[in-house]
Amino acid sequence: MSVLTADARRDLEIHRYPVLVYALAPLAALVLQAWLPRLLGRFAWFDLPLIITVYFALGRRSPIQGTVMGCVLGLLEDALTHHAIGINGVAKTVVGFLAASVGIRIDVENHTIRLILIFLLSLLSSAICIFINRVLLGLAIEPDWFNQLFTAIGNSVIAVIVFPFFDRLQVRD
Questions:
Q1: Which regions in the chain score pLDDT beneath 70?
Q2: Which residue, 66, 116, 139, 169, could crosslink 57 as a Cys pair with Cβ 3.0–4.6 Å?
Q3: What is the DSSP string of 50-67?
Q4: Which residues, 6 or more positions from 56, have their beta carbon under 8 angstroms from its beta carbon?
């Protein structure tokens, strides 16, 4: 059980990054998220702003910062796509808050836990988007759960590759 819980040292450890990383990583994720699906078509099984939101929320361990980052990235993603403004904003806000809250409670340095978290949070984000579209907006959209499952798997694979890269960019004290 000690693998899952964070000790007192980890509770105090908050990851810091250069300002350039905070600016360029979300910007690159938004640009690639708007551009790559046009090239890949229906095989674009990833959500890069979600991955960035989860990573920084887990690392900073602040629910407020995770919520704000998720909200901003989600709204900007909505602005760059054909979706109604706010759908991804709400989904990524919830995901950012939950990721930061989980980051406080458990050891998120473990790669297996990160993999499981990004997979589950990706499915949650998809479920929230589908809920908003069908229930709140009343749109007759049939959810494609296989596509959502492949997106969650794609996000997990990308996160396994990208998270260690971002770990190396941390500012060490």
A1: 1-13, 173
A2: 66
A3: HHHHHHHHHHH--HHHHH
A4: 22, 25, 65, 66, 69
